[in-house]
Amino acid sequence: MSESIVYEVADGVATITLNRPERRNALNLEAYEALEAALRRVARDPAARCAIVTGADPAFCSGDDVIELMATPRPPSEESPVVRHRPTPAAMAALECDKPLIAAVNGPAVGWGMELALYADVRIASERARFAELFIKRGLVADVGGFTRLPAIVGPSKAAELLFTGDAIDAAEALRIGLVSEVTPHDELMERASALAARIAAGPPLALRYMKEGLRRGVHGEPREVGAWAIETIRKLMRTEDHKEGVAAFLEKRAPIFHGR
Q1: Residue 110: beta bridge partners?
Q2: Which residues pair with 123 in a beta bridge?
Q3: Which domains does the chain have, with CATH numbers?
Q4: Is 30 helix (H, G, I), strand (E, B) or coil?
Q5: Which pTM value belongs to this model?
Q6: DSSP category for residue 253
Q7: Is 62:93 a contact under the CB 8 Å cutoff?
Q8: Integer CA distances (angstroms), 47 to 99, 161, 199, 207, 214, in order
Q9: What whole-number distance in Å separates Cα of residue 235 and Cα of residue 124?
Q10: For residue 21, what are the contacts with CB-CB under 8 A and spacing of at least 6?
């Protein structure tokens, strides 16, 4: 396992911690691959009946590492997890994990970081949490979570607002719209998430797996087709001038000016 992702198991609960705090847990290629491996490991680990995904403070996950994955003068590599012609492997690992997954959102969850939170079955937020589907501000579209999970959780209208604006919401607003099920004081977040995970892990493993499959079939549907379309669209958009402007504006800490090309 890469140092960028920490995997631990205790008392039936696996904890996956994004561990790049100096980059606010932004995901580079190595971290994406390590996260996928950790999520696949949960699915096959007999010691894990439930899993928690969280980040090393001060952030949950700030999405793609803009400097390593986007801020480049050459066309993005086909090996990048954001330009493959198929759903993001880490996303599919989360969506295909047949064990309950809890996101303990300890700080900002933005861009693909918000997608990761959406892939969890339950989201508990610290009072310091922030959420933003900020892809539009980079001239891109969301991943499969934004198009399938978000509307199912908060409703199509609110999902459209969050996707079209890329605006951030705080933990209180996330609770109000049903994006998270609980907001806790920051220092109590992992205690609360662990207590819930322990209660779930004490349940019958086979029934839990079928319960999760039932939720996926009944609420979220099949993500592969939407995910493939999203990644192909992101691949195209990453070659546009608007995307380059979005990245430049982020790095230069200014508002972007888009021209539709």
Answers
A1: 132
A2: 103
A3: 5-187+204-252 (3.90.226.10)
A4: helix
A5: 0.85
A6: T
A7: no
A8: 12, 41, 15, 16, 23
A9: 32
A10: 55, 56, 57, 58, 59
Q: Is 59 exposed, middle or buried (0-12, 13-18, 19+ CB in 10 A)?
A: buried
Extract the runs of DSSP E, i.e. beta strands, from 70-129. 101-105, 108-110, 122-126
Q: Give the pair of three-digit tokens for residue 104.
A: 């303990």
Long-range CB contacts (< 8 A, 24+ apart) of 167-170? 167/132, 168/108, 168/110, 168/130, 168/131, 168/132, 168/134, 169/130, 169/131, 169/132, 170/129, 170/130
Confidence of residue 249 (pLDDT cuts 50, 70, 90): confident
Could you give the strand order of the β-sheet that contains 169-170, starting from the edge strand earlier in sequence? 108-110, 130-132, 169-170
Q: How many helices and strands in the chain, by DSSP H and E?
A: 11, 9
Q: What is the mean pLDDT of residues 236-257?
A: 86
Q: Are 62 and 130 in contact (CB under 8 A)?
A: no
Q: How many CB atoms lie within 10 A of CB 86?
A: 11
Taking Cα atoms as reference points, which of 236, 226, 238 lies closest to residue 86?
Answer: 226
